[in-house]
Amino acid sequence: MKAASSGRLSGYKRIVIKIGSSLLVDRKDGLKAQWLQSLSDDVAALRLAGHDVLIVSSGAIALGRGLLGLKPGVLKLEESQASAAAGQIALSRAYHDTLEKHGIQAGQILLTLSDTEERRRYLNARATIDTLLKLGAVPIINENDTVATSEIRYGDNDRLAARVATMMACDLLILLSDIDGLYSAPPASDPDARFIEQVDAITPEIEAMAGDAGTELSRGGMVTKIEAGRIATAGGTAMVIASGKTLNPVRRIMDGGKATWFAASGNPVTSRKKWIAGQLATNGSLHLDAGAEKALSTGKSLLPAGVRKVTGRFARGDVVSLVNSDGIEIGRGLVAYDSEQATAICGLKSSEIEAVLGFAGRSEMIHRDDLALRPKDGQNETEAE
Ligand code: GLU
Are 283 and 192 within one domain? Predict the structure, then answer.
């Protein structure tokens, strides 16, 4: 019997574990109860060693389609949603039953995209999850697939888990799936593929290594895992990708088993900036001149004078992309004007705003506190304070 030590995970206080559908659900036999029990044992061990644990679990659709007797093959949107509705009950009950054997309560949280993307709702979701953790429960989180349609969904639980990780200021995100980590090339087709044990920064070279390795039961391949890594590490959360195909998959990581580790940004941005940088969808872009790009890199606010062009439709307070004169996104920010006003005042001096708009608005297009710049050349972002 091992003592209450979490080994390799001991430095990470708050941990999110993301579980892919193929680990939990067998196409023929349904829920893999023995596997889930072994995962719950690992969760209980982490709790005993003093960690907060959150679970982001897929599997609702995969379970529900079997329960509803749907045939193999691609599901229509409404069939997936019906499957999610039936499967989520079974999924939650399974977590409840296995965790309860350890005296741990589960709390079901179903999120839609707007719950992490709109600041007011985000703060609300965070307060609920925080309270569950304070009360010693394990939040079991999934996307609310029954109401989400393609325009308003995350679509994959890798990115959902990364958003949850940064929202809850987690120290580590564990992605468990049928993929055991990152390789320099697709291992199935390239005999020279090298296993990558450590990623210090998500460079274009790392991105290029992510072929698409999705399976039929789960949507997320390596591409969404790297995207999740970008969101997590920029928000100060380290990430690890490991296979969940064995029993006690988290214990294996604790014991130093095979995995790819992604280092968190050493200089985590503030929670507001994390939230801005991690937005999945923006409604528009501000195209900057070289002077503005330079000013932003030294911690200044974005003034209307430095904006050459405005594209898209957005409201005041929306997150917009900042694009430099080479067409590269250099960051994101909460814009102080809607798209029509921004178009009217771009290129102007702040003192000219009132004459054009008829009211004295903010002198900045985006205040420096509302800006999140992308790290340059693999370096960590420095705070613009
Ligand atoms: N939310 C989906 C489910 O529970 C899974 C999405 C994914 O596989 O990433 O079935």
Answer: no
pLDDT tens readout for residues 374-385: 876 544 443 332
H or E segment to which residue 37 belongs: helix 33-48
With DSSP H G I counted as helix, E B as strand and the rest as coil, what are the percentages for the chain, rounded to 5?
40, 20, 40
DSSP H or E stretch at residue 268:
none
Round to whole Å and give the CA distance between 297 and 279. 20
21 CA to centre of ligand 1 in angstroms: 7
- The pLDDT assigned to 382 comes to 38
For residue 17, the domain's CATH number is 3.40.1160.10
278 lies in the same domain as 232: no
The domain containing residue 297 runs over which residues?
A: 272-384
Q: CB within 8 A of 265, min separation 6: which ones?
A: 233, 234, 235, 236, 375, 380, 381
Q: Does residue 4 sit within a domain?
A: no
Atom 2 of ligand 1, residue of closest alpha carbon: 58
| Count of H-run helices and E-run strands, the chain | 14, 17
Tokens for 101, please give them.
């054997």
Q: Is 321 in the pocket of ligand 1 (CB under 6 A)?
A: no
| Confidence (pLDDT) at 37 | 98
Determine if ligand 1 sits within 6 Å of the CB of residue 228. Answer: no
